[in-house]
Amino acid sequence: LSILLSLLVAAHSARSPDCGGILTPSGLRYLAEVSKPHAESVLRKDLMAPPAPEPSPTSPSRNQITSVKVVQFSLTLIPDTGMRLSIEVDLGITSAPSTTKEFRLSILADLHVDMNPEENLELVTSDCKPTLEEVQSTEEVDRSAPRKSSGSDVDKQINVEKICLEVSKLLLFPNERLMSLAAPFPITPSCQVQYLPLAAPMYSEQGIIISLQTTFQVAGTVIPLPVSPVPFSMPEPASSSPSHLILAFSEHFYTSLFSALEKSGALNVSLLSSLTTATLSEKITQMGSLFPEDLPVVLHAVPRSSPHVVLEEDKAIVELFLTAQIGAGSSLFQSFLSVNVDVTARLHLSVADTRMIISVAAVEDIELSLAASDVGPILAALLEELFLPTIREEVPAQINAVLRQGVFLPHIASFTYADVNVTIHKDYVLIPCNLQLEARTG
Q1: Would you call 259 helix, strand, or coil by DSSP?
Q2: Handedness of CA 346, 21, 228, 190 (dihedral sign)
């Protein structure tokens, strides 16, 4: 699997995946399960015409499909090729008021997901074999051999070739939903994330593997981010994973996310200190001459370089490199100190619906160093005494407020995630989960 993904990356040297997913055989079985009632509804609409008027004694009777029931619907994986869709449908056909015969429509179709010239994923049917057989009653079986078809009248009534041409619409994830995978999703009002497929998926015994490259937009413009120095390969899951889907995100993905937030201004924070210029003048004597009246002390912190995320076993760390302008006044801000603030904080990752919830769980370390001063030299110990409590409390709180809506995971419309387990490993995060069809409203 790793070799196949390396070949995929080599073919797209200018574009490098930083996340991806594997739809497992369990996931395919679930998609077949939820598609079965949908397929029955579509076939009923296509095959069951409105009741015809009563035929006159002189006119020939017309075959009428009076019942459609999907009895078997399965999706199986064909490694290196795609998927096989197998459908069996029981049809009740009435040719006269008292004559109803049962037929079995069987469809065997080979499907795969391809990438079209617009670089959207689409479901393609590569082969489809329909058969229509009359189901013989016990008495008929005793009298005669089973017949392959009921004759030209029924064949004309059931256009099996048309069903084959449109067989993919019997699944609950048509191409419109596949395209929704690459839709831009909001993170903040000005920042969006988009997951772009790099190529058509690959098919292995573990499942259907797709590699994605994340792009971030700020105010509608894609922002340039450094390409990962090491192309990300989907980690190979256990062959018998019970989860429907396994999502994986590289360390580079999280660093890019925080870099995008930085470029959008979302990491710029304003902190109101509990101190005032009068209380500060007790510790810093030059404050009194600079600010004769008592004013609130405010900290405006902005990133001085891009954030960095480090993933270790069971641990995610974000490193923020800020410069805080410390000044007085709310309406007319006057800075008197510039302090470099380096924050190392542990991240907590969870999933709600189709969103990854990222929050700063605990600050592990904060380093303050004086960058510039209008009130003379200040010892590092005094800086920490005066400003560390505010920074330790307010910086995580404001970042958590920015990220409170979460970051949308790659997903297709109408499906959400359940039974989610987030595990952090060295260099990547693994999210095994189950698919769940959203209940229709209205």
Answers
A1: helix
A2: negative
Q: Is the alpha carbon torsion for 319, 323, 326, 329 positive or negative?
A: negative
Amino acid at 334: Q
Q: Which pTM was predicted?
A: 0.87
Contact 186, 192 (CB under 8 A): yes
- Could you report the per-residue pLDDT of 73-103, keeping only the tens digit for each? 999 999 999 999 999 999 988 876 678 889 9
Q: CA–CA separation, 213 vs 19, rounded Å?
A: 6
Residue type, 187: I
Q: What is the pLDDT of residues 323-372, one digit of tens each?
A: 999 999 877 889 999 999 999 999 999 999 999 999 999 999 999 999 99
In the DSSP assignment, the letter for residue 439 is P
CATH code of the domain occupying 183-424: 3.15.20.10
Alpha helices in 330-379 (DSSP H): none
CA dist 16 and 356 (Å) reads 22
With a cut of 50, list the residues of the chain below it in pLDDT. 1-13, 138-146, 150-151, 441-442
Q: How far apart are the first and last CA of the chain?
A: 44
- At 403, list the tokens: 């990220």
Residue with tokens 């007319």: 332
| DSSP 3-state of 261 | helix
Rounded distance between C-alpha atoms, residue 409 and residue 388, angstroms: 35
Where along the chain do its domains lie? 25-52+60-173, 183-424
DSSP assignment letter at 421: -
Tell me if 65 sits within 8 A of 157, measured CB to CB.
yes
